[in-house]
Amino acid sequence: MREGLLWFDDNAGRSLLDKIERAANRYRQKYGHVPNVCYVHPTMIGNQEAKLGALRLVAAHNVLPNHFWLGVMEASGL
């Protein structure tokens, strides 16, 4: 990942989907394009990968709970 955005959202009133959508919108505003990968703590999605439209969710132990690390991963990095 060449550039990324670390987003924090611990609002219990928001769903995981809403949190990720808000983070992805901020990424798009800041960098001018949409992210295709979002790293989250495994407690948020389990130890598996998931997809949210074109956004790939990846469990990562080095990302703290309620944090979302978004960016663009080139096809060779998948």
If you had to describe this structure to a student in words, what would you say it looks like?
The protein is an alpha+beta fold and 78 residues long. 26% of the residues lie in helices and 28% in strands. It contains two helices and five strands, in the order βαβαβββ. It has a five-stranded mixed sheet with strand order 1-5-2-4-3. A hairpin with a 2-residue loop joins strand 3 and strand 4 (55-59). The termini are close together. The model has no long low-confidence stretch (mean pLDDT 91).
Provide the descriptors you would attach to this structure in a database record:
single chain, 78 residues, alpha+beta, five-stranded mixed beta sheet, 5 strands, 28% strand, globular
Enumerate the strands of the largest sheet in spatial order, edge to edge or round the barrel. 1-5-2-4-3
In angstroms, what separates the terminal alpha carbons? 10 Å
Largest sheet: 5 strands, mixed
Estimate what percentage of residues fall within beta strands. Answer: 25-35%
Total number of beta strands? 5
Order of helices and strands: EHEHEEE
Average pLDDT level: 91
* Shape summary: globular
Structural class: alpha+beta
Supply the number of helical segments.
Answer: 2
Give the low-pLDDT segments: none
Radius of gyration (CA) equals 12 Å
Residues in helix, %: 25-40%
